[in-house]
Amino acid sequence: MNALSVAVIGGGPAGQMAAITAAQNGHRVTLLEKNEKLGKKLYITGKGRCNVTNACGRDGFFANVIRNPRFLYSAYAAFSERDMMAFLERNGCPVKVERGQRVFPVSDKSSDVQRALDRALKAAGVTVRLNADVREILTRDGAVCAVRTDRGAEAFDRVILTTGGLSYPSTGSTGTGFDMVKALGHTVTDLFPSLVPLETVESWPFALSGITLKNVRLTAKKGGKTICSEHGEMLLTHFGVSGPLVLTASAYIAEEPAGTELFIDLKPAIPAEELHARLQRLVQENPKKAVGGAFSGVLPTRLLDAVFDQARIQPWAPAASFTKEQRQAMVGALKGMPLTVRGTRPFSEAVITRGGVSVKEVRPSTLESKIVPGLYLAGEILDVDAFTGGFNLQIAWSTGALAGGSI
């Protein structure tokens, strides 16, 4: 095989894996990163612990890919989560599997993941250029021939574009890659923030900002139809709601969030009938107390006040006067505290970007552009994304490995 000069634009997870794999194939690889260090987004994933992948296997992986999962068949076959775990172990970063099959470095330090990548880049002979701001991909006779940076043009035989999406722009994901591919004739689908907190019309969460709701069920509905319903944890904020359950729900409604109805079951382990009986018993046991005092053990006080407000119950009223209709209203609020989505938070707070380069214009077996020979695309710049749990990083590793390995 003749050695080719390869430019990889973007030093995130996909870019680093693409550079390593292309260099291992014997090519002269230059990794161009506009930041002062590689893997900036890696440092903040998993709250700094870096949820590198998910050990759920092939079926589990594809069950968690939301957009264009079939496009990823070749990429996953080329480099699976087992390959990624072995790669990290081989490069001095032992890993562990936690709840939900999430994989983390044993040290719980994202910096150790980056150190493993640094070792692999060095061993493969990749030339890394930091603070390199790529402005344009140049072509001759329709094929890739060079890239132009803030320092001028440089010839390359192949280019792998891994500049990410629009999420977390502070890490360098500012959308410049989309501008570059559009200039070359590629289609970029509409872009939306996903895996993102949600703003609500109702203001009651604002007053309870900072309260975490554990072991609740969040159901999202659109036009009366249930879109998703999951059990877990969420957070009340000064703008609405956030936390794991909310991020997952946002992935279902990323393209049209406004008007989505959310219902929080605050007591998912207790059937409505049993809850009715429990409230009635509390009234019978505390007839001389106010309603708020009789039900004080049902929920934390501030949250209970929000339930009373939703059910239109006066907490200072005597428990003895608590009616069947009021009990039904309270059970309704406890089993389905309603919220209406106003919209999502901005890209700066989103984990991923929904949308990207149309996969119809990219060869799934190699990730080479169908429009520009010699151009390969990997990572979040593509119109593929998944739920939380390490799946989006695995998409980056898999597509990066396939793009680099295809040259």
Folded structure, characterized:
The chain has 407 residues and is α+β, with helices and mostly antiparallel strands. Helix content is 31%, strand content 25%. The chain is built from 13 helices and 21 strands. The strands form six sheets. The chain has a six-stranded antiparallel β-barrel. A five-stranded parallel sheet has the order 7-2-1-11-20, covered by helices on one side. A three-stranded antiparallel sheet has the order 3-6-5. The radius of gyration is 25 Å and the shape is elongated. The model has no long low-confidence stretch (mean pLDDT 95).
Defining key terms:
single chain, 407 residues, alpha+beta, FAD/NAD(P)-binding domain, Elongation Factor Tu (Ef-tu), domain 3, Helicase, Ruva Protein, domain 3, 6-stranded antiparallel beta barrel, 5-stranded parallel beta sheet, 13 helices, 21 strands, 25% strand
Counted beta strands: 21
Please report the first level of CATH classification, the CATH class of the largest domain: Alpha Beta
Low-confidence region ranges = none
Mean pLDDT: 95
Produce a short descriptive summary.
This protein has helices at 13-24, 57-63, 73-78, 81-90, 110-124, 176-183, 204-207, 244-253, 272-285, 291-294, 301-311, 324-335, 391-405; strands at 5-9, 28-32, 53-54, 65-67, 95-97, 102-105, 127-129, 134-140, 143-149, 152-155, 158-161, 192-194, 198-200, 212-222, 225-236, 240-242, 261-265, 337-344, 352-354, 375-377, 385-386. The chain has 13 helices and 21 strands.
